[in-house]
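Let's practice the habit of predicting before peeking. Look at the sequence and jot down your guess about where helices and strands might fall. Then scroll down.
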Amino acid sequence: MLLSEYSQEFIEAGCDEAGRGCLAGPVYAAAVILPKGYKNPLLRDSKKITEPIRNKLFPQIKKDALAWSVGYCSPKEIDKHNILNASFLAMHKAIKKLSIKPELLLIDGNRFNAYKDIPHHTVIKGDDKYLSIAAASILAKVSRDRYMKNKAKLFPFYDWQTNKGYPTKAHRKAICEHGSCPLHRMSFRLIAKED
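Done guessing? Here is the structure:
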């Protein structure tokens, strides 16, 4: 059972990212402020539920949240800042766009670059412990998946409609055969080393 909040006294925003391990496309992040005591039995870590359930939860989270937003960093920003810092920057962009200023940030993971004067608490596997982080994981993942499926029409070789930019064999094979495209992260190893 996921916890509805970390603290009763602060306005909390849960934050998570999607697409950190991909070879192509932006990294997305979301920030979500849920009502205190919020409950939703379907809501959990986006990686542990099916795509249809994520798609069902996506509008529900937006409707139920007191505030929500999504931010992203482009492949060029990822190459410039490195993927970890770009993930934090995407979270910063999402936090900045919230219509309510949070008093505490709950961050999925064990590291974060502080955002302005807002205190934060990092939570390992936070998307499986706190509803606000789980909600952020779903908004970030669904937003990114939709972006990559849309871009798959422009770059059909890479099978992004299936792999969403992750390093599958089909994706790496397509890079070998067709080269990279402007959405590939050039700071990543796009072609696997030969054994």
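How did you do? The chain is about 35% helix and 15% strand.
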